Amino acid sequence: MTEILFIVEDAAEGGYIAHAVGVSIVTEADDLDQLRAMVRDAVRCHYDEADAERPKAIRLHLVHDEVIAA
Q1: Domain membership flag for residue 13
Q2: Which of 51, 2, 54, 49 is nearest to 25 (CA)?
Q3: Dihedral angle sign, alpha carbons of residues 45, 50, 52, 58
Q4: 70: in domain
Q5: What is the span of the domain harbouring residue 50?
Q6: What is the pTM for the complete model shown?
Q7: In a domain, 69, yes or no
Q8: Cα separation of 33 and 40, whole Å?
């Protein structure tokens, strides 16, 4: 695996929540800088350093819903 994709959404209680696509990794944080660090840490914890499946890059896809009056 060369890359892992995380879908990042606004958390209901504030901050952000990130879910990996195709892998059971979920993490959350109060702001984007903290989220980047949490995602890196979660990926490092999920894969051994010598694991051939460990991704070389992490992609964050930010999803932002906006509701406006009709």
Answers
A1: yes
A2: 54
A3: positive
A4: no
A5: 3-63
A6: 0.87
A7: no
A8: 11
